[in-house]
Structure formats: C-alpha cells, structure tokens
Design a protein that fits this description.
This protein has 338 residues and is an alpha+beta fold. Helices cover 43% and strands 19% of the residues. About 3% of the residues have low confidence.
C-alpha cells in the first residue's frame, strides 16, 4: 500500500502528480481558486466555472446514453452455428425430425419409394433429390438451433439486467462516469458474495442469505494502482480504501478465511470506543496525500485496505485454512485493518 500511495503522489503526468491533478480538478469543479491564482490576483473573488459547466453537461449526456432501460453493459447473442446444451439439442432434433417427415409427406414420398426392397438401402436414383432435401433440412435444423439459442439468450439477458439493478450497478456506474469526466479516470469494484434477502414464508417474513453480485463506486482518491501498471486494467495489484460499517463487518465475519475474533474486537471498538473515519490510519502520512480529500470517511465506520492481485504462495505461509505451493502464483483478495 505504501508503495502504491507513494507512486500515486510522485508519478508525473503533464508536469504534476496524479494526486495533484485530482486536487486541482476537485477544486476547479467546486469553484475554488488555486493558491497561486490568489497570490497573483489577491482581490479576485468571482469564479466563472467553465470546468463545472462542461463536466455537468458531459456527465448528463453520458447518463442519458448509458444509464437507461435500453442500454446494457454487455452483449449476449447466439453464434450462427449455435452449440446447444443437451436438453435443448434434443428439442431441436425432435423438431427437425417432425419437419423432415412432413416435407417427405408433402412430396408424396413413402418408405417403399425410398428403400430398395432387395438391398434394403436407399435407392440410388433418388439420392440426388434426397441429398438436396437433406441439405435444405440441415439448414432448417441450424435455424431451429439458432432460434432456441436466441430465446435462451433473451431469458439470460433479463436475468443479468435484474442482477445489475439489484447489485446497484446504475448508481455505481453513474458515480464512476462523473469521475471519468472530471479527473479523467474512474474506478468501480464488483464483488460476488452473500447478500441478505427478505422474503415471505407462509405468513412470516424470513431472512435468507443469497449469493449475488454487488457493484461499488471507488472514489479516485481512495484508489491505488500498482506502479507497474500500464492501464487501469493491469498491474500486479489494485488497492482501495473502504469504510466498513458494523453491518459490513458482521457479514464479513462468516466469510471463508476471515478472523472472527479480530472482527468482533473491531465491532466492539466501533460501538463502544467511538472509532470512526480512518482511525488507525490517521497517523499514516501516506494516506493524507491530498490537502482537501475528495471523499470523506463515513461516521460509525472503520477504514480498511483491500487488495486484489497476485502473490506468491510463500507469502501466504502460516495463513489459517490455506494450503498452497510456495512457488505458486495465487490470485487473492485481502482486506486488512490494524
């Protein structure tokens, strides 16, 4: 984390660090003069915010284009030669067989006309006609496969869109889009885990845990890329600061490889000792790299550091419940709090 935070505050982009640009854009959008401007023009009070106007206009256009009922962040369509699962393939074969029998009957064909009674094979004089009929019906079978696959894709698309809505994709994407317009880079996080669902069971409402996708906006001042990254999508790791509430910690307590005793101590600290905001990170100079942070910690929360990346198995030596080769490269998600 210290490595990524240091790189973010020192990496030169057009004459300034990433953190410097984040601070400048944040102040420009909120119509706050730069200290150097106030030194040069001490009596300047008016601020005509072109950046504020441009960002709002572009953000509104982007939301109109990408956050609506018609737009989906995925394309799901069958291939021309659809490869169906077994139950759908059987359905397609049945339809093809029915269609072939009907076509033969329409052409006045009978079993006696097709089979040589002495050799018990298809008569050679009708092979050209039968070959053409089979070619036509094979294309028809391909079309049947495609139609069945298309209906399956539509059903699955509706399921995915429902999962996006339930997981908060639209809200997270809208916030990320704003960052993309202003800074200009934005971050989103996606997680798959147990979520609490309430449903009727007879005459009572019961609480159930269901596995689902959740989408979160990651503020740009709380996102830290690995120094070896060439784009926002690669690099050895990605780190973010997260404010975890009591509900978050309680849910994390039951996850695999969690440390329930330490999480219980954290929850007790939040409830009794009044821990809030960055807490344990307040003395870490690597955190306070912005004079005016873009995002403020929520009260009643504790800040954690979450890393997604690849590490050597040897780095996991001694971790409870894990058994990996020391030379193996392992994809991990690690969340820590002192």
């Amino acid at each position: 984390y210290a490595e990524a935070a240091s790189w973010k505050s020192s990496c030169n982009v057009l004459g300034a660090s990433i953190n410097t640009w984040i601070g400048r854009m944040h102040r420009a959008y909120h119509l706050v003069h730069e200290p150097s401007e106030l030194e040069q023009y001490p009596n300047m009070e008016a601020y005509f915010g072109l950046i504020h106007l441009k960002v709002n206009a572009t953000w509104a256009w982007g939301k109109n284009q990408f956050i609506n009922q018609k737009f989906a962040p995925f394309v799901l369509a069958p291939t021309p030669d659809a490869d169906l699962p077994e139950h759908l393939a059987a359905q397609a074969k049945a339809r093809f067989k029915q269609e072939l029998i009907r076509r033969l009957a329409d052409n006045g064909a009978t079993p006696e006309m097709l089979i040589d009674p002495t050799m018990r094979v298809i008569r050679t004089d009708i092979l050209p006609q039968l070959t053409e009929l089979m070619r036509v019906e094979k294309e028809r079978a391909r079309q049947i496969n495609y139609e069945i696959a298309s209906r399956a894709c539509k059903r699955h698309s509706r399921i995915i869109k429902d999962q996006l809505i339930e997981g908060g994709w639209h809200t997270a994407y809208s916030s990320m889009l704003f960052d993309q317009v202003l800074y200009p880079f934005g971050c989103m996080a996606v997680e798959r885990g147990d979520t609490i669902k309430w449903s009727w069971s007879g005459s009572r409402i019961v609480r159930k845990l269901e596995e689902a996708w959740t989408f979160r906006h990651v503020p740009v001042d709380r996102a830290f890329h690995a120094p070896d990254c060439s784009t926002a999508q690669d690099g050895s790791y990605f780190i973010e600061q997260i404010d975890r509430s009591m509900a978050d910690l309680y849910q994390m307590r039951s996850e695999p490889n969690a440390m329930p005793d330490e999480i219980d101590a954290l929850m007790e600290g939040i409830a009794n000792a009044g821990l809030s905001g960055s807490g344990w990170m307040s003395d870490n100079t690597e955190v306070n790299t912005l004079a005016a942070p873009v995002s403020q910690p929520r009260s009643g929360t504790i800040t954690t550091i979450r890393m997604v990346g690849e590490i050597l198995g040897s780095d996991l030596a001694g971790a409870s419940g894990l058994s990996v080769d020391s030379h193996e490269v392992v994809s991990v998600t690690i969340e820590v709090c002192n």
